[in-house]
Every structure is written in C-alpha cells, then in structure tokens.
Amino acid sequence: MKIQAREDATFGATVTGVRLAGLSPSEWNRLYQAWLDHALLIFPGQHLSNAEQIAFARRFGPIERIGGGEIVAISNVTSGGKVRAYEPAEWDDMMKVIVGNMAWHADSTYMPVMAKGAVFSGEVVPPERGETSFADMRAAYDALDEATRALVHQRSAHHSLRYSQSKLGHVHQEGSAYLGYGMTEEGAPLRPLVKVHPETGRKSLLIGRHAHAIPGMSDQDSERFLEGLVEWACQPPRIVTHRWSAGDVVLWDNRCLLHRAMPWDMAQPRVMWHSRLRGDELSEAALSARK
Description:
- Strands 1, 2, 3, 4, 5, 6, 14 and 16 form an 8-stranded mixed β-sheet that branches. The protein has a 3-stranded antiparallel β-sheet with strand order 13-7-15.
- It is built from 7 helices and 16 strands.
- It has 291 residues and is of the alpha+beta class.
- It has one domain: Double-stranded beta-helix.
C-alpha cells in the first residue's frame, strides 16, 4: 500500500496498492491513521459494490441512515434511468439539493449530531467537470489573524438545511422528489464556529452554507461575516479538487473539512454513492436547537 501525500495542498493523500473490499487488520490501522493525518484519502479504481462500500464504511462505526438506508445515490438520474430536468425553471427538489451542494458545506451540521465523515464513490461520471472539491478548515483556522481568531472563538451559528435550501426555492412538502432528510428538521442546531477534533485535538472552522444567524449579530451582518469567512478560508493551498473516474472512492473527515460538488453539463448523467459516517453523540452534538 502506498500513501502519497499532496504536495500542493495542506491536506489530502492518494492511496494505491490496496483493495478496500479486503483490508487486512494492519492495512486498516494504517489507513485509519492516514485518514486522521490527511483528512482526505482518494482511492482510484476501486469499483466497490454497494455492499462493499457499506462494509468499508461500517469499519468506522455506525452509518448515519439517510432515507432509511446505509448508502444513498447522489444522482441527477431518476430510478427509471432518465436524466432529471436540468433547466432551473424545471428543477425538482432533488435537483435543488444537488445544486445546493455546489456551495461549500459540511454534512449534517443541521442535525442534532453532525456526521464525522463520509465514504463517497463514483459509478457514472460526466466526461468533463463534475469534480468534488474539499477545503481544509484546520489550515484555515491556523491562518486566521489574531483579531478574527479571537472573534470566532466567541461566536456560534445556527445550522439549517431548510435555511440553505430556501435560497433555491426548496420548501419541504409532500410529494417531494427529495427524501426529506434534514428538511424535516424544524430546529436549527447551534454550533461553535471553532470545532476541536475529538481524536487529533486540532482546531478548525465550522462554517459553510448551512450556517447562519450568529447570536448577537443582525441577520445581515451574520450573513456577510459567514460568507466572507467561507470565501477567505476556501482558497489555495487549502483546497483539493478531485477529478472523478468511474470506480474512484473518496473518504473524508467531516469534522475538519468542507466540500462541494462542482458544476457540470447537467444533460450528462452523474451517479455517485454516499455513505455518511455517524458522529459521536458527545463530540459531534450541537449546543442547542431553536425553532
């Protein structure tokens, strides 16, 4: 097994010479430590079945069940095999979620317990574009000026999928093409802007598209501050963009990275498979929720 760290970014590594479907105990231990060290691991050409992906994800602990399952398709293709309508005026709610995910975010920050990571694989990828980008919030925290660092330590933000999706006209309702995960949450959990990683002890910024309504700030000032922080944080050398080939698998640490899908010609199919790693009920729990 070869673990090649990125030289052009503050995080990330490519792993070759190993089969995720048949890891030995020593390989697993080495991979787990590499995940903590690099936060993002890319495994080219694995071609995992859904069952194999679930089995690999389970090695990290319980899987966050989305729509009742341990793996979910993130896809612009319907169950009948048709590409969803891709003109904005014709988007269904599933397309609105796909487009929403093109903004920087961390997974499940809008739930009472946020995810600790994810296993993501590509089955059908467009011939051009459609990458996934990641951003290192540990390095972003380390690069803060003293005044901003002091400020973020004093602040928290509410997180809500309803809030972030409302910007695209997505309202949860019966008959929605989206499973409803997160959209059924009426509360908006409060989370500190600085998160301490429970295993490494490193501090990182916890921001992204779901964050809003910082207590003690007006909605306008909060929006301006959070958007500016994301724009500043998600810059080289703190970003890695993965160009997908069919069969690739990516593993990331949701506790210290943001990610986003990159645009592509949505007339082209894109079928990805997502298994979300459930967070620890103590270290990933929100401070509170508001209604």
